[in-house]
Design goal:
copper ion binding; four-stranded mixed beta sheet; binds copper (II) ion; 33% strand; single chain; Laccase; Cupredoxin; signal; alpha/beta
Length: 239
């Protein structure tokens, strides 16, 4: 191959690489740290147990970004078992090694280890969620992803008066690793959870839940006007 032809091919390659790596000027890069750690939570009266969390929070922190943004999440494992985090519904083109499923797209992060994952929002808009993708740890290790429209664009509906995130999940009184091991060893169904939750809380109809309940009040006239109230729902059901 002649030198000039080789040079042209290298130049074309560099231009293509730049096109892939370059992000538009309005796009932002975000940096988050997810510390996997145990924390003590009580639900349904006296059912207190250590659960695996991100940053001690149940549910975990919300990731907010715009369509086109890139978010780097440094996952630091201070728990006592392997774990991965998965970005549910994010396409991750050419970036599968940051996608999360253990032993499928990446090795799990070992206790004491860390791994920085890159989340690319290339076309997603609206709400998605992230969750653990190792064993059954998604039962407590999960949170919302809210992706706003690109700067200069808007949702295809009227601007909401207010936004808040509802995450529907489940609570087991039993240790979640035991739930997982029982199901794997028996080959049967996973044990059904003890209660469903909204933002980690069982609700007024369940015993001993009033203290941490999540309450949001609305003026009724807004519901019947031509304006929109957006309620973002993320379902993190395991069963
Ligand atoms: Cu998922």
């Amino acid at each position: 191959m002649s030198f000039s032809r080789l040079f042209v091919m290298q130049l074309v390659g560099m231009v293509m690489l730049f096109g892939i790596l370059a992000s538009p000027g309005w796009a932002k890069t975000h940096h988050r740290t997810f510390v996997i750690q145990e924390a003590t939570y009580t639900r349904l009266c006296n059912h207190t147990k250590n659960i695996l969390t991100v940053n001690g929070l149940y549910p975990g922190p919300t990731i907010s970004a715009r369509n086109g943004d890139i978010v780097y999440v440094k996952v630091i494992n201070k728990g006592n078992k392997n774990i991965t985090i998965h970005w549910h519904g994010v396409n991750q083109p050419r970036n599968p090694w940051s996608d999360g499923p253990e032993y499928i797209t990446q090795c799990p992060v070992q206790p004491g280890g860390n791994f920085t994952q890159r989340i690319e929002f290339t076309e997603e808009e609206g709400t998605l969620w992230w969750h653990a993708h190792s064993q059954y740890d998604r039962a407590t290790v999960y949170g919302a992803i809210v992706i706003y429209p690109k700067l200069g664009t808007r949702y295809p509906f009227a601007k909401p008066h207010k936004e808040f995130t509802l995450i529907i999940g489940e609570w087991w009184n039993a240790n979640i690793t035991d739930v997982y091991n029982n199901a794997i060893q028996s080959g049967g169904e996973f044990q059904i959870s003890d209660i469903n939750t909204i933002n980690g809380q069982p609700g007024d109809f369940a015993p001993c839940s009033a203290n941490g309940n999540f309450i949001s009040l609305y003026k009724s006239e807004r519901c019947y006007s031509n304006k929109t109230t957006l309620q973002v729902v993320v379902t993190s059901y395991c069963n």
